[in-house]
Amino acid sequence: MINNLGNHFTYLNPAMTFTAKYMVFFLALSIILFWFMGSETNRMMIVCGAITLAVAEVLGKLAGKIHSNHQPFAELANVNKLIGHAVDNSFPSDHTILFFSFCMTFFLFKKRGRALWLLLAALVGFSRIWVGVHYPADVFAGAAISVFTAVLAYWGVPKLSFIKRLLVIYERGERRILPIKSNSRNY
Known about the structure:
70% of the residues lie in helices and 0% in strands. It is mainly α. It has one domain (5-78, 89-158).
């Protein structure tokens, strides 16, 4: 049903294609900006997001071993395939895992604009169905794995003393390389 919307609302296809393929660059830019232009909380947030992504990807690969299916365009007739994609196991959606890993982490850490991050992640997942490369279950599974993992990382990672020490060491090195005065960080 969702993929078929592209046949009825063709004027939305370019936006959905852009979102499905290129929104990852916006996410990468956001991560870089949060890291280099933010506070110690932002850096901890990026660390939590990265750990969430790593753990969620492992869990996603395990889930893919339990259940496997090819992309809709490879299994069904009349799929409105709007982007190129190799045929492989589409369960769960890696794009959804990536976006929900970071966007859910941003949601947990940020006070302002937090709902926009979840909306972005949901839009990316929706667009992956729209363009014909994922089933809704692929997207829901990727989102569920990432949300669960992000909540665990949010609760646990900031309490790990070795993470705090690594961030302090990184910042010392950054101050030596970049001659910018920075406030002392309190992780």
